[in-house]
Please model this.
Amino acid sequence: MQNIDSISHVRGQSVYLDDIPVKEGTLYAVVLGSPVAHGRLISLDTADAAALPGVARIFTAADIPGDNQIGGIFPDEPLLAEGELHFQGQPVCLIVAQDELTARRARKLIRLEYETLPPVIDVEEAWRKQQFLSPPRTFRLGDVEQAWAQCAHITEGRAATGGQEHVYIETQGAYACPEEGGRIKIYSSTQGPTAAQRTAARVLGLPMQYIGVEVTRLGGGFGGKEDQATPWACMVALAAHLLQRPVKISLHRADDMRMTGKRNPYRSRFRIGLSDDLQILAFEAEYLQEGGAAADLSPAILERTLFHATNSYFIPNVQATAYSCRTNVPPNTAFRGFGGPQGMFVLEAAIAKAAWELGVPAHRIQQKNLLRENDEFPYGQRAEHARARDCWTAADAAYRLEEKAQAVETFNKTNELHKKGLAVMPVCFGISFTNTMMNQAGALVHIYQDGSIGLSSAAVEMGQGVNTKLVQAAAHALAVNPARIRVEPTDTTRVANTSPTAASAGADLNGQAVLNACEQLLERLRHTAAGLLQVPPDAITLHDEQVLYDGKNTEYDWNKLIVEAFRRRVNLSAQGYYATPGIYFDKQKEKGRPFAYHTYGTAIVTVTVDCIRGIYAIDAVDIVHDFGNSINPLVDRGQVEGALIQGIGWMTLEELLYNPEGRLLSNSLSAYKAPDLHASPKRVNCIPLETEGPPTAILRSKAVGEPPLMYGIGAFFAIQNAVRAFNPAYRPEMQAAPFTPERVLMALYQ
Ligand code: MTE
Ligand code: LUZ
Ligand code: MOS
Model:
């Protein structure tokens, strides 16, 4: 089935926040951000700004009727700064005016008096000063101390990965409208409608029932709107509540880039020990996560780094410790992979380094150590339906790994100024929110009298195709034509207490809730049909819009059945609910079964480096991916391609630079290089691994949103291998991503 949004997207008819027709009297807001990364606010003079014609009001922390607090995991983040300033761009005042231009003019007239304090920008400095956002965590398996003695080869090193700007096409924004009786309706570009609702209620000092949040779709989220869409929703809610006027905010790209958090950069140390026959016997790592100025989701991201510290491999002795460090930059946040990519990079860096030292290709070490059925992860869960080896074997068979590696070597022998590099990137990603509580979802399905169907769920459509998958699930369950089904905007008044659409689990959780609602309806309809036909309900089935008795057509089709059900006063609406079974995690012991299942895959990445210029091209990425039984191969392939290119961008091009004063230098799309067509691989092959898929995946179609991002890590190591082919003396002190052309050039001539 084609993505249900594709036609309206192409025609420009899809509705995003900025396409909602505004109500008469709507005001527009802009935010004044802190000019310093660390400081103390002395005074705030808004008189001139407030006097500018057209300015409605200027809000500061003092205007907040409820709690000035938006922290999701820990209450450590004010909506508007009070006393201390913690990062450049931290919201200080909200300026509301008749139009945006006036609000921006007024912003320039606000005078801030502050004392500047020394900022901490460097994560190692924060670590030395013990500035932690949450307590350090350690995952352990076996006994590393005792294992080192058994290793024939031990190597140590350092690794670093950079941040990443989300570059969602639609920037952050929200629109709040006051309604009757003090209620506020918020339209928000958020992955987490309930988070926006809960936090706005807290800020306004109102019960949650007073706030309704509606989301039609996002122009991309990628994790950047899991938590960080909330402040903008709260700000317009505050202004709408106090002014009793509709208020809208829509961030300019520059404000969005400056004020919002990004993927957490990491600095890490590793030690890896192998046996003579390349078995990894021990792995030890210490991860320093750059959290930014507030916890946001960083503690949960830190946890996922530890969950994915051993990626797709079994290592019998592991000790992994992670520190979430507080620095004076915008709070970093969720980004596709959620700490998993940062963890996997470190192990891959360790394997690559061990491979050079031993003079073997890294893929020999990788292959040797892939997970097998029932192997234990450091967090206690065992690999069930482990597909790591199946994906590798299938990739080897389809793409002929040894021949490819041979071809790269031959090329490198015969070419002086261009070198090729090859790397394999196996991926194993755990599916479920690691916070067990969040693994629940709801749905509401109405069958209208005319047989058409309205479907609501907690899922937010952000381009990943979740709504299409929900329509497919409902059509499958009710045996109707998908064209009958319309997906309603996500709305906290229709489905309450929702988790954000994140962790790649949106289709699984909400799809199962939709199935649950549809099963209830189906049960009622089968009884109705049985009554009409005077036969037992067990013998009734629905198939292709027909009511069947004992497998044979009856006089009733879907429309006729619905008319009869309504006449007989059968409830044609159902609320569905789902909570992932069988998952738990004990944070005291750091053991449990946090994931419903794992998504696996293997990618072979080949690149060519121009050794005069340091530039490179990704020749091909050849993937075998475990989709389970894909419900929508086209949507899923789109997810693989998009995630892959996002991963390649993170590993090769995208570089966030802050100056020592904590100012973002790469603060525009001309200074920050997001991957484009030129950065994309010349060829992407993706073969689905033929598997059955687990029952907790929606119709056995595995979660696909995040895992393929990590194939991009292969690009880093492929480039590194090409560099080593040119410059065998290359010994990086630290394996640091992104491997930008500048860094490649330095490495070629180190
Ligand atoms: N695809 C598009 N087009 N746009 C997005 O914002 N977000 C990604 C992924 N794919 C995203 C996307 C992220 S970070 C996640 S967690 C999943 O989609 C969320 O959707 P799902 O749970 O329905 O897979
Ligand atoms: N968000 C979250 C996530 O809150 N918990 C998770 O485990 C997670 N994983 C991936 C992406 N977002
Ligand atoms: Mo995705 S990082 O879980 O929004």
In short: The radius of gyration is 27 Å. The chain has a mean pLDDT of 98.
